[in-house]
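Thread: "does anyone have the structure for this chain?"

Original post by V.I.:
We have the sequence but no experimental structure in hand. Need at least a predicted one for the grant figures.
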Amino acid sequence: MPSISMFYGILVFLCFGDDDHHHAPHIHARYQNDKVSVAIEGGEVLAGSFPEAKLRMLRVWMDIHREELLADWELAKAGDTPFRIRPLE
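Reply from O.Q.:
Generated one for you, tokens below.
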């Protein structure tokens, strides 16, 4: 599972060939011992849990980079390596 970004202690990943896992384009994120899967298009939590402040940061980052995330999702779904995306600054 390649990391595509990291900011404020949050690591963001995409899984290769994971289009059937949650049936929606999504990312995986980790912060300390917490893990979450979040839908790219709506920002809803699909699985796991995250500290609320970090989840807000993650969603802001996702809003800023939505088009890049969807393009990376297509790459990862096809088994290709996704591109890195700028962190939240």
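V.I.: this helps a lot. The first strand starts at residue 3 and ends at 7.
O.Q.: and DSSP finds two helices and five strands in the chain.
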